[in-house]
Amino acid sequence: VADGAGQSGSVVMGCAVLLWGWFLLGCSWGPGPPGVGAAALLTAAYVLDDAGGLGRQFDGIGAISGGGATSRLLVNYQEPYRSQILDYLFKPNFGASLHILKVEIGGDGQSTDGTEPSHMHYENDENYFRGYEWWLMKEAKKRNPKIKLIGLPWTFPGWIGKGENWPYDYPDVTAYYVVSWILGAKQYHNLDIDYVGIWNERAFNSKYIKLLRYTLDKHGLQQVRIIASDRLWEPISVVLLLDSELHRVVDVIGAHYPGTKTVPDALLTQKKLWSSEDYSTFNDEVGAGCWARILNQNYVNGNMTSTIAWNLVASYYEDLPFGRCALMTAQEPWSGHYKVESPVWITAHTTQFTQPGWSYLQVDGHLEGGGSFVALTDGLGNLTIIIETMSHNHSQCIRPPLPHYNVTPQRATFYLKGSFCMVKTLQVWHSRLSFESGNSSLFHQLHPVKVQKGSFSLDLNVDEVYTLTTLKTGQKCHCPEPPPPQPFPSNYKDDFNIRNPPFSEAPNFADQTGVFEYFINASDPGDHVFTLRQVVVQRPITWASDADQTISVIGNFQWVNFTVTCDIYIEKPRDGGVFIAGRVDNGGIYVRRTKGIFFWVFADGTYQVTGDLAGEEILMKGLSGVRDNAWHTLTLNIQGASASGLLNGYPLWENVTISKPTNGWAAIGTRSFEFAQFDNFHVE
């Protein structure tokens, strides 16, 4: 009897009699899971053999930045914290050690938690330095040159649809736009994009997909593979079976949130099957349990050879939709605080001991007592086995609903045959998710297992993950503890005076409709040369319900009493307008229903105070004398149930009664998709 290290389970070999099902003959066993007698332990045997060939090729585990603006706050972290976060995500044999990074091809539209800027706001505009996805891909490649890169649009700039909310009426234009992003990645950042998608979770168009392949090939991008359709298995699978030309150009069928299941038509295509977006669950222990279960069962139940998490890192305000639905959390650049959440170490159980290009073994990976295992090999004698025993209530993902099932403590005996019969020792890594005490044991190395006469046994408790592997390269790395958490500064200023900003967007502003970028006002005499400008002037081809106004939020969602001051410059004559706001209560996919206290001024010389972004709930209105193409200073003061506003330092309106919302962010924005500038922002 060889006892595994730690109390978490034991490794057992060399018992005389093994019967499938229950132990009928008592033997001298190591301690089983707590409270379970050895003689009553459910027991089963599993054979791992490559003599009859291998299963599907493994394509890697990844995560998504974008869809949308999920990495927004990450870029504003100071060193060394920013590099530490990136190491935990991308550095091989360090933390999550991701194989794949999928990014949004920004399209100026709301894509869940914000907008990401396009490389082509307008038809005659190209700029491959906007946003932060280029930077993130380079940082990932710097740490792991072998990481695979995927680009996928959620939204498109309005000019692509020529007035229609649809990207397929002019497929040549859309193909040119997407291919230009791939060419720009190479030309300006030396990034090779490996895969490109069609339109996230929206309709696909066969003519467009074929034209995309043609356009890629025409520009020498034969190596870029196409994923379709980032939605459901159907109807793409059926269409591929009926259309041989489409079948030729689509390389991967990507489904979202498949619940570990595939469909017969998808299997019939003989294409690679991926869960190209999954997880999306709050990153506590239940989120870790969800992730552990689907990383195995997407292959065991659904033949999926890649699983990609939405999202990579929660670097967006937590009160936006789906707060902290990420592998780790880094939402406080002002303090430097971040948290390596348990899903990072669950990821490591697979990623640190496999690589894209390895193959799954052909084996039914269901455990008799519930849970699952997968086994992979590099074809050169290395073997990695990942086992999970996640219980139903501790592994529910955000979607789809999880049918009930049971997991019980069990003893699993593995027989190694074929090229693995010579394996004598396996390294052991273990996690146990604890839901009562909160003291989870994550990614700990235990004593190696000795394989005797081609087999070994393992006592498995509930809510555990084991990796058994011939590789000795695994590491659980730790950076020094980051600084403690702090709320957003209660006195915050930005004058946007930066000549060569490292990023196109000002720190901590989270655009929710429209795009706000640093701007150099060459014609200004001096006070307002460097400003922040809203630059989207046509409604994008939307993915979510973007507002009809543009808005960027900033600050602490819990703020109640505060003063916002900002210099504003309306560029659109006659019906142009801008606002500053407080107690802003919504964003992301819910931006259209945003409430707050909004102080508007318009180019026609009027002002309004409204209780909502849509401008339907008018609390006060009057004349202001504001005109377009001139700078003015707006001040909004909110105290308790009362608000007042100043124009150029003089009271314009006061004692407006407000009941709801009771708290929220500060914000700036415009009346429509129009150019406007902001300067000397201050919130206190």
UniProtKB/TrEMBL annotation:
<dbReference type="GO" id="GO:0005764">
    <property type="term" value="C:lysosome"/>
</dbReference>
<dbReference type="Pfam" id="PF02057">
    <property type="entry name" value="Glyco_hydro_59"/>
</dbReference>
<dbReference type="InterPro" id="IPR049162">
    <property type="entry name" value="GH59_C"/>
</dbReference>
<keyword id="KW-0443">Lipid metabolism</keyword>
<dbReference type="GO" id="GO:0006683">
    <property type="term" value="P:galactosylceramide catabolic process"/>
</dbReference>
<comment type="similarity">
    <text>Belongs to the glycosyl hydrolase 59 family.</text>
</comment>
<dbReference type="InterPro" id="IPR035394">
    <property type="entry name" value="Glyco_hydro_59_dom"/>
</dbReference>
<dbReference type="InterPro" id="IPR013785">
    <property type="entry name" value="Aldolase_TIM"/>
</dbReference>
<keyword id="KW-0732">Signal</keyword>
<dbReference type="InterPro" id="IPR049161">
    <property type="entry name" value="GH59_cat"/>
</dbReference>
<protein>
    <recommendedName>
        <fullName>Galactocerebrosidase</fullName>
        <ecNumber>3.2.1.46</ecNumber>
    </recommendedName>
</protein>
<feature type="domain" description="Glycosyl hydrolase family 59 catalytic">
    <location>
        <begin position="58"/>
        <end position="352"/>
    </location>
</feature>
<keyword id="KW-0442">Lipid degradation</keyword>
<keyword id="KW-0326">Glycosidase</keyword>
<dbReference type="Pfam" id="PF17387">
    <property type="entry name" value="Glyco_hydro_59M"/>
</dbReference>
<dbReference type="GO" id="GO:0004336">
    <property type="term" value="F:galactosylceramidase activity"/>
</dbReference>
<keyword id="KW-0458">Lysosome</keyword>
<feature type="active site" description="Proton donor/acceptor">
    <location>
        <position position="201"/>
    </location>
</feature>
<feature type="domain" description="Glycosyl hydrolase family 59 C-terminal lectin">
    <location>
        <begin position="511"/>
        <end position="684"/>
    </location>
</feature>
<keyword id="KW-0746">Sphingolipid metabolism</keyword>
<feature type="domain" description="Glycosyl hydrolase family 59 central">
    <location>
        <begin position="360"/>
        <end position="475"/>
    </location>
</feature>
<keyword id="KW-1015">Disulfide bond</keyword>
<dbReference type="InterPro" id="IPR017853">
    <property type="entry name" value="GH"/>
</dbReference>
<keyword id="KW-0378">Hydrolase</keyword>
<dbReference type="GO" id="GO:0016020">
    <property type="term" value="C:membrane"/>
</dbReference>
<feature type="active site" description="Nucleophile">
    <location>
        <position position="277"/>
    </location>
</feature>
<dbReference type="Pfam" id="PF21708">
    <property type="entry name" value="Glyco_hydro_59_C"/>
</dbReference>
<keyword id="KW-0325">Glycoprotein</keyword>
<dbReference type="InterPro" id="IPR001286">
    <property type="entry name" value="Glyco_hydro_59"/>
</dbReference>
